[in-house]
Please model this.
Amino acid sequence: MGGFAFAENSEKDSNNKIAIFYPEAKEPYHSIYQEIIAGSVKAASEYEQAISYEKFIITKKFDSEQIVQTLKQKKIHKVIVLGRSGWKLAKELSKFVNEDSTKIFQVVSGALPISPNGVSGVSLITDPAYLFGYLNQVASNVKQVHVAYSKRSAWLIELAKSAALEKGLKLNLKYVTNTAQAIAFYQQIFDSGVSNEDAIWLPLDHISSHDKITLPLILEQAWAKEVVVFSSKPSHAKRGALFSTYPDNFALGQHLFTMVQELELQPEQKNFAALKSTLLAVNLRTAAHLGLKYSSKQQQQFKLTFPQ
Amino acid sequence: MRSSQSKKITHASFKRQLLSILVISTMLLTIITSILTAWQTSQTLKETTINNSLQITSNFAEQTVLALLTGSKENGQEAIDRALGFTSVVGVAVYKTNGEVLIQSTKMSLQKPSFKAELLPNKTQLFFETENIWTYSAAVTYIEDSYDKDMINLDDEVIKEQKLGYVLVQYNKEALHQIQRSIFINNITTGALVAFVLALLIHLVINHLTKPLLALSQTMATARDSGLYPKALVNGSLEIRQMAQTYNQMMATLEQQNTALEKSHNTLESEVEIRTQELVVARDGALTASRHKSEFLANISHELRTPLQAIIGYNDLVREDLELECMDAQVEDLNKSIRSANNLLALINNILDLSKIEAGRMDLYVKAVNIKNLINEAKETVLPMASTNDNELKVNIGELSSILYIDRQKLLQIFLNLLSNACKFTHNGVITFDIHNDKNFLYYSVSDTGVGIEKNKLDYIFEQFTQVDGSQTRKFEGTGLGMAITQNFCQLMGGTINVESELGIGSVFKVKQPLQTEI
Model:
């Protein structure tokens, strides 16, 4: 009765409130969180209903019970969490259910390169569709994309497959269980007579793409054989990949708001998305080496260029 | 040994002492400093080398990740080449976690320490050490890649690590030892050079500093040796300048004083000269007067004696006539007159003798004399005088040559003077005459048991016209010339006369006179 009454009475109120939990952090992370929050607030302000935000700083050792109590007091059901601690809180909050076993809180997680595992949210891992879009834009001659992936990136490969199909790219996929296999795969690619129509995609994958082990190998050989390398990891463009993507934090905030609103309408749905709000970063030196030339109009679309 | 050394040190010159102390301490300081610096440097170098080799080892471990991941020796070759590129790295090896060797350099196997790979710790560390080789170990770890640290806070991330194997790096200490040696040699050489240069500098500086002191000392030495008053140059450090100034003041004072002294000395000398001149004049005058007196006396005595002898002669003639005519009363009167004339003659003779002696006209007439006869003659002459005062005369002749070369007249005169003197001052006593001779001297003495002479008067008895006192002069007749003549005759013959006497007991006159062996 109480729970129902709670639902009844609070429905209207709680619709208008969103709690944002973000970790206490130094720069530059603090600014990143603030941008995301600003994006959410902006999106809310443009929303048809008036939505108010409650911001909470979350510590590493948070007391989830106390947070739940606070949220209940404030009649807040929609929660956006940021960072690693936020993600942990999301997992905790998802355990709280109403009497009808529906979840009390609709939580979305952001600002973390997560893979889908029970928590709704937007991952920092760029959606392959966007990557392939950029590939067309930056190196339009590429016809085939080679990628090694492990179990953790399998969900992304599913997205990649459809995106490749859509963009007319051929995907050469290799499932690997360890780095040695990945290295062998890359070696085999380089030994198989690659051309400028081939590109290597480095997904954000702990096994297939390692900054210190595989990246130097790939970059070295790709440079020699003039093969396009693009990456899901932002800093790789800086290190010599042709391009990578950076998250657009403000847009990510907007996306999170949209997602939490959607969750409110369909509480039981697990809503998870790869990052769609991205900024393109291009290494112009690598591009020049590969013989790629861009018009100034094209260059304006590059949010970041290297070397800076 | 030590004291002589310390004496040496204290006797060494000031400059030398200062030099020794400064030079020795500078050398010690420099050399100790350089040794300490060398030691410190080589310690630091050792630490740096160890840190470097640890760094090389951990770099090598990082570079072998690929080789261990892929299990491919080829992938590790480059890392091995790079590690061996360090000259001191003599061997490297890569082990899997199960202790199986993946790859190792050729030299490594020769010096590989025995170990169990499972026991190796994860940390990069010095694992094994021999005299010449350090063996470092490091775990090769595969660290899971993370998202960009620019984008998310990695503090929150849980990063997984996986241990792939181990590496061993063997590092040769020879290069380090060589550098350490050269550091020591260089430092000590440099230290020694610096010490030498410093010693030279100190030498120069001290020379410069002590120069004024030496100059001052030399000036003082010159002053001492020459007796002049040279002034010292006032220069150098404050104390030396003060010393020089004080010395100069001293010299000035000394010069003033000495000048004054010399002046007074000169005055004194001239005064002494004047006095001496005056004395010489006075003495010469006195001498001349004395000679004149003696000459006068000699002349006048001669002149007196001649008429006196005539008086005695004629009286004697008259007496003989009167005896013949038995005019005994007149004879007796004439006898008295003749005795008085004889006494007067004796007195005049004495005066004549003394005058002759003082005028230097008395000569010795030495000839062979029968001494015993002479003694008898003296004895005969004196006996009546002895008996007058009831004296006993003893003559003791010792070892005596029969013939002696002497002046008979003068010796007889001495005997008579001494004996008659003794008789005169002795009553009811004994007069003893002792005589003997040896090869060179004649010894004789006259002792009596008479009145004696006071000790303080003994010196005067040989002076002319002197008797011991006025009262006795009256009591004992005499001119007071006898002893003076006696002494003069003794001295004329080269002898000496001594007198010993005790008041009331008697006197002894002893004569020692040299003998001539022949004329």
User: Anything to note?
Assistant: The domain at 11-144+159-179 of chain B is CATH 3.30.450.20 (Beta-Lactamase). The longest helix of chain B spans residues 238-324.
